[in-house]
Design a protein that fits this description.
The protein is built from 10 helices and 12 strands. By secondary structure, it is of the alpha/beta class.
Length: 345
C-alpha cells in the first residue's frame, strides 16, 4: 500500500514537472498574442488603425532570423461594454496568450482586478493611462493637445464671416459617446480651452449619446444642437458619429473631426482633423514587445513633439490664409513646447 502511494506521488510529481516544462517551453520557443478589440473593427477608424499597426509589427517580426514561432488572433469583443470583463477574464484564465494587446481608456480599470487573479498575464493597452500595475503597460496620447487644436479651429469657424454655415451665435459643441475620465478631465476641458483661447465669448455645449454605436441618437442630438444655434460640432462617439455627419449634410453645419483624417467623410463640412497616430503607435509598441523591450508597470504619454499627434485644416476653412496662419502658429507653439499642454491625470 505504501509502495502504491509512493508510485502515485511520483507520477504526480512527473506530471507537475511535465506541465511546468511545457509552459516554460511555450514561453521560450513561441509567442502568442491576443489582439483584443473592445468593439468591432469595421467602420471604427481607431480600431482599424490599431489592428493594421499590430499586424505590421507582427509581419516585420516574422522576417527576423531570431524570431520565435508566433500566433495571434484578433478578438472582437463587441460594443456592449458590460461584457468586456467576462471576455477578458476568459482570455486570462485560458493561459493561452503571452500578451493581451488592446486599446481603450476603460480597459486598465477593468483589467486591474482581473490581473490580481492572474498575475502572470501581461497586457499592453494603448489610448489609456494607469500606473502601478506590474503586468500592464499603458500608453496615452496627449489628447489635451488634440482637443485644444480642435476647439481652436472650431472657434475660428463659428466666428467666421465668409463661411456659409457659420452663424453669429458663437456656439460650438462636443458630442461624446460616454462620460469617462479622459473625456471629462482632458478632452472636453481642452476643447473649451482651445476655443476660448481664440475667442473668450465662445459658448461650448456638451451632450452624451450613451453608447458608441447609435447613429440615430447621434443624429437626433446633433439636430437639437443645431436648433440651439450650434454651427460646429466635435463628435467623439464611435459609430454614433455617422449620425452627426448625416445631420451636418442635411441641416448645414460644420464638423471638427477627431482621431483620424476625416475630410473624405463629408467634404465641405469637415473643417479639421485632430489625429492620433494609432497605427504608428501600435506598430512601435508591439514591435518593442516582440523584441523583448516592453516596459511593463509603466505609463507614458506621447504627443505632437513625439510624432503621435497631428492636425490639419480642411477646405473651406483652409481657403482663408489668415486662418491657416493662425492655426499654424498654434501648432508650432505646441510642437516646440512654447505652449505646454500636459493632460490632467
Amino acid at each position: 500500500m505504501l509502495a502504491k502511494k509512493r508510485i502515485f506521488a511520483l507520477v504526480c510529481a512527473v506530471l507537475i514537472l511535465f506541465v511546468s516544462c511545457t509552459k516554460n517551453e511555450k514561453k521560450t520557443d513561441s509567442l502568442s498574442i491576443a489582439i483584443f478589440v473592445p468593439g468591432v473593427v469595421a467602420g471604427n477608424a481607431v480600431y482599424e488603425m490599431f489592428v493594421s499597426g499590430s499586424e505590421r509589427a507582427i509581419e516585420s517580426y516574422k522576417t527576423k532570423e531570431s524570431a520565435k514561432s508566433l500566433k495571434y488572433q484578433v478578438i472582437e469583443a463587441g460594443t456592449n461594454q458590460s461584457e468586456w470583463p467576462a471576455k477578458l477574464t476568459a482570455l486570462c484564465a485560458s493561459e493561452q496568450w503571452d500578451l493581451i494587446f488592446s486599446s481603450n481608456p476603460a480597459l486598465p480599470d477593468i483589467l486591474e482586478p482581473i490581473l490580481k487573479d492572474f498575475p502572470n498575464q501581461k497586457c499592453i493597452i494603448l489610448d489609456s493611462y494607469k500606473t502601478g500595475i506590474a503586468g500592464m503597460q499603458t500608453v496615452l496620447y496627449n489628447q489635451r493637445q488634440q482637443a485644444y487644436l480642435a476647439g481652436y479651429a472650431a472657434a475660428m469657424v463659428t466666428t467666421a464671416k465668409d463661411l456659409p454655415y457659420a452663424n453669429s451665435a458663437k456656439k460650438i459643441a462636443l458630442i461624446a459617446a460616454q462620460e469617462y475620465p479622459a473625456m471629462n478631465d482632458i478632452m472636453y476641458p481642452a476643447f473649451i480651452e482651445g476655443a476660448r483661447a481664440y475667442d473668450p465669448e465662445i459658448e461650448v455645449l456638451f451632450r452624451i449619446v450613451g453608447n458608441w454605436f447609435d447613429a440615430s441618437k447621434g443624429y437626433e442630438i446633433a439636430s437639437s444642437l443645431y436648433d440651439l444655434g450650434v454651427d460646429v460640432i466635435l463628435p467623439i462617439a464611435g459609430g454614433a458619429s455617422q449620425g452627426v455627419i448625416s445631420c451636418a449634410k442635411d441641416k448645414g453645419f460644420y464638423i471638427s473631426w477627431f482621431d483620424n483624417e476625416g475630410y473624405e467623410k463629408a467634404p465641405g463640412y469637415v473643417i479639421s482633423s485632430a489625429m492620433m497616430m494609432q497605427e504608428k503607435m501600435a506598430e512601435q509598441v508591439l514591435g518593442n514587445y516582440l523584441d523583448g523591450r516592453a516596459e511593463f508597470g509603466t505609463a507614458n504619454i506621447y504627443g505632437m513633439e513625439d510624432g503621435f499627434i497631428d492636425f490639419v485644416l480642411h477646405e473651406p476653412t483652409s481657403d482663408n490664409p489668415e486662418r491657416v496662419q493662425k492655426i499654424a502658429e498654434v501648432y508650432d507653439a505646441i510642437k516646440t513646447k512654447r505652449l505646454v499642454l500636459e493632460p490632467s491625470l
